[in-house]
Each structure stands twice: as structure tokens, then as C-alpha cells.
Specification:
five-stranded parallel beta sheet, binds flavin-adenine dinucleotide
Length: 421
Amino acid sequence: MNEAELPYYHTVGVGAGPANLSLAALYEEATTESLALFEKSGGPQWHPGLIFPGVSMQTSWMKDLVTLVDPRHKLTFLNYMVTEGRLFALLNSQFATIPRKEYERYIKWAARQIPNIHYSSPIDRISFGDGGFTVYSDGRALARSEHLVVGVGSRPYIPEALAGLPADRSFIADHLSDHIDTMDRSKTVAVVGGGQTGLEKVSRLLSAGFTNVLWIGRQPWFQTIDDSSTANDIYRPNYNEFLHTLSRPTRKRLVTGHRLTGDGITPGSLAGLYQQNYNGHLELGRFPATFLPGRNVDSSEVVGDDIVLHCRATEKLEEYRVGYVVVAVGREITPVPFDSELAERIDMDEDGEMIVDADYSVRWKGMNGHRIYAFNRARWSHGIQDGSLTQLPLRAAMVINSILGREVYKISDEMCQTKWS
Ligand SMILES: Cc1cc2nc3c(=O)[nH]c(=O)nc-3n(C[C@H](O)[C@H](O)[C@H](O)COP(=O)(O)OP(=O)(O)OC[C@H]3O[C@@H](n4cnc5c(N)ncnc54)[C@H](O)[C@@H]3O)c2cc1C
């Protein structure tokens, strides 16, 4: 197909995770202009390897794709509950926060109602030429557009210290489900990573009958999230405005200090694991899981049948011999497949990241009215909430206001007890 025959959209979004789904949901209500999403997975999904019974969201169900800016939208979580006949059952279950599986079901329900999502379309090249952007998959141009929204999210990674271990004995947390049934329960399993995902994997291993689990984390103790009212004031438009008045170094310093407002363990699940391990002691006469905070895994090697982890502890070096390693050290942002010509035109900061302005637009040279927006890649400029679900509809609304050049969605935040400046 030659370029002129390709479908042309006002806006193309790369990725159909919650960020771009929120954009597409609100966009449909805001304008008759066309939008299409291109998603690499074969259908709607949300972190499939990290969803299993007993794991819960860290945010309220009201933080869905649309409610914060348009509570009357047809894709609210509440409408999902009512139309799917689940509301009374959920209410009476009295969850503090909904199960992750429920959020996944909601995301799939919403995605099925959003038009123009093209699945099985991994975008591996984005170029810019006369009249707009072109997205490609496997050498084939799929569509052109006036504007582009990048919503490729994050991906798990294996750190250098754990690279090169055999793939059937060392794998990322997302893949534990693929291995757990065939793993030898008599072996020791190390879970590396002291966050929520690490905790969930330790708990899962204990439930599956493993009796020697080492939980290794870098921080001096396994730290819980600060979900207090004042910490949550950071996740409000008021705070975003304040951040944008500050210099970049000051913003970075403040945002670094915010880690535990969003990137920590849910206290209830930590207590749950602690109790699970206590119950394990009642059965075995020893704790099936050993908690090892304050350790950094410096390197690893295979020695005979074992994997040896070389760790730096508070004031000494330690070695742990294990049968398996589950890697839960966090996620990194997914690279954006701009072609080299477009990549050269994007303004980068000193960390090599795209510069994202207050309206989520990316600065680039020669834009000539064609805008690029990016979700989930502006932690240092927009704060820790940029990588979470808490402000999805607000972010999408800001992008829509900016693309359409008018205030379609009013973003206001009047009643705030905290004064930031
Ligand atoms: C297990 C887990 C639980 C979480 N729970 C919470 C929570 O309770 N509360 C909260 O606020 N935050 C939570 N988060 C953090 C965050 O909000 C979510 O990760 C959220 O999914 C981010 O949405 P996103 O759309 O930016 O990215 P993603 O969900 O990562 O979606 C990106 C999409 O882009 C697709 N993609 C990537 N590259 C391409 C490409 N080249 N071409 C086409 N498609 C591509 C991917 O397949 C994916 O579907 C959680 C994160 C994890 C991992």
C-alpha cells in the first residue's frame, strides 16, 4: 500500500494500556476527530503475569479510566459493575481495595467498547514525513496521523548482576506462573526485590508448598506504602501545578523523596505474609521464608546444581546457594521505536529522557503543528503519579485539551488542605 492510501487518523496512540485506553475513552466523547490505538498484544490485557487470586489494587476503584473528569461516562467502573451484575456481590465482599483481577476484567470490558484498537500490531518504527506520522509493524506501514500519543508503558527487567543465569532457573516475577508447577519444591528459591511484586511472589511460593524461600531486598527493611491523606495530596492536580513552578533539580529531589507514597508494599499484604510465615513455623518448626532486607545482589554464578548469589549486606559480604531465582526488581520504561531521523529531533534531558511539558507534549524540532504526547515517561517533571493509575483521566484530559486547542475538560482541584507554596 502506498503512503497516500494508508488510513489517516487525527491521532494515533501506540500501546493500548490503561493510559491510552483512558485517552481513547475520553476522546470519543470530546470530538468527532478520529483516533486509533495500535497494541502489540493479541487482545486487551493488563500485566497478565502478575494477576492471580488474592492480589489487590493499591488505588481506589474510583481511579478508573474516566471518573475523575467525567463520572457520567459509559466506561466508569461503577457502570461496569452494574451492567455486569456484580455490584452487590462486590460491595458485600467489603474489600478495602478491589482485587487486581477485577480491575483487569474492567479494563477488558472497557477496551471491548472502544473503537479502533488494532491488536497484534507491535509498532517497531515511527517516522515523520510530509503531513504527519507513519507507524509501521514488521516493515509494513499501518497508518498515518496528524498527532501521536506514546503509551508504551513499562517492562520488567533483569539487572546485570542476575543476567546470564539459566532461563529455566532464573526468571522475572511475571513468568513464575509458567514455571511454578514444575519447580522442585525441595530447593531453595530466592526472590530478589523488596517491593509489592517480590512480596506477592514469596507468598505465592509458600502457598504452593515451597518451604525454603529467601526474600532479598535492598532497603534496610521491607517498606510499606504511605497511603495517608497528606501523602495522597501529592496525587492531586494542585501538587502537579506546584511541581511545575519548580526548577528541574528541585523537582527531581522532591520526587525522589516521594518514592514510598506510591512505590511500596501494601501494609495489609505485608502483615498477611508475616502471618503466613508464622503459620508455616507452626507446621514446620521453622520459618519457611527468611526475610533478608539490606542486601544488594552484586553478582551471581552457577556452581554445580546451584545458583550462588553474592550479596553485599550492611557490613559484610554474604553468599546464598539457591535452586531458583525469581527476579522482581522493578520495571523500566519501554523504549519508543522512533526511527533515527525522528529520534534526532526529540529534545532530551541530561538523563537521556524525552522532555515532557506540563500538557504531556514532547518537545521536538520541526513539529509544524504536529504534536507528540507521552504518558508514563515524565517521572522527574510530573512526579511519581506519572507512572501510576491515579491520575489517568486527568492526564488524558490534559492531552485532549492540548490537541484540540480548547478546554474540553475542566481540571480543577479546589478543596485542598495542604498548601504547597
Ligand atoms: C502488577 C502491577 C500492579 C499495579 N497496580 C497499580 C495500582 O494498583 N495502582 C496504580 O496506580 N498503579 C499500579 N501499577 C502501575 C501502573 O499504573 C500500571 O503499570 C499501568 O498499567 C500503566 O499504564 P500504561 O498504559 O502507561 O502502561 P502499560 O500498562 O504498560 O501499557 C502499555 C501497553 O503498550 C503496549 N506496547 C508496548 N510497546 C508497544 C509497541 N511498540 N507497539 C504496540 N504496543 C506496545 C504494551 O503491550 C501494553 O499493553 C501497577 C503495576 C503493576 C506492574
